């Protein structure tokens, strides 16, 4: 499946918590989605660290590293990027997802850099939180919610 065009791309900018990236990697392995890790990671992803974490599916994930977001954009100049932030005004269900989209999420403690969301407000979406008991959703949970809505709209390719 890695030779086929992925139905979607998930992008984590400066992820900090290895368990979130591990959970998302499992989601990617299960769905054929490519995982892009951008910027500084708060953990290691070398073979030894991955084995030690018990991520026996890691070899089945198309994982790509990018020094920064500009490098990601340069590698995919025609890509469409959709940004997910708790401060966006539009709901993730309002997005019309297309095959090959890049779904971009920020770090667990800082979210997305403001320069990314400010440059493309029409491409920013949020997941509603209906109570004040929490300030945000877990990164892997939010990613799963958005990814499966996008895959649903695409008719679950590769299913």
Can you summarize this structure?
This protein is α/β, with parallel strands linked by helices and 159 residues long.
Overall CATH class: Alpha Beta
Overall structural domain count: 1
How many β-strand stretches? 7
Give me the Rg, rounded: 15 Å
Secondary-structure element series: EHEHEHEEEHEH
Q: Which stretches are poorly predicted, pLDDT < 50 over at least 5 residues?
A: none
**How large a portion of the residues is in β-strands, by DSSP E?**
15-25%
Question: Helix count, per DSSP?
Answer: 5
Main β sheet profile: 7 strands, parallel
- The CATH topology corresponds to Alpha/beta knot
- Please tell me the CATH architecture by its name: 3-Layer(aba) Sandwich
Mean pLDDT: 88
The coarse silhouette is globular
Report helical residue fraction: 25-40%
Broad structural category: alpha/beta
Order of neighbouring strands in the sheet with most strands = 3-2-1-6-4-7-5
Distance between the termini: 11 Å
Description of the structure:
With 159 residues, this protein is of the alpha/beta class. The chain has one domain: Alpha/beta knot. It is 30% helix and 17% strand. The protein has helices spanning 18-31, 47-52, 69-75, 114-119, 139-153; strands spanning 9-13, 34-38, 63-66, 81-84, 90-91, 102-105, 124-126. The protein has a seven-stranded parallel beta sheet. Helix 1 links the parallel strand 1 and strand 2 (34-38). Helix 1 (18-31) runs parallel beside helix 5 (139-153). The radius of gyration is 15 Å and the shape is globular. The termini are close together.
């Amino acid at each position: 499946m890695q030779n086929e065009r992925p139905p979607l791309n998930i992008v984590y900018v400066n992820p900090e918590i290895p368990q979130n990236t591990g959970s998302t990697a499992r989601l990617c392995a299960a769905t054929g989605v490519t995982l892009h890790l951008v910027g500084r990671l708060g953990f290691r992803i070398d073979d030894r660290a991955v084995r030690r974490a018990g991520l026996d599916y890691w070899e089945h994930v198309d994982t790509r590293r990018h020094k920064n977001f500009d490098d990601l954009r340069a590698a995919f100049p025609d890509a469409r990027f959709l940004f997910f932030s708790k401060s966006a005004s539009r709901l993730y269900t309002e997005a019309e997802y297309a095959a090959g989209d890049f779904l971009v999420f920020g770090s667990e403690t800082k979210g997305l850099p403001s320069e990314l969301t400010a440059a493309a407000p029409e491409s920013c979406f949020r997941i509603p939180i209906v109570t004040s008991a929490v300030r945000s959703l877990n990164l892997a949970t939010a990613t799963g919610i958005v990814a499966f809505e996008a895959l649903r709209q695409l008719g679950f390719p590769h299913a």
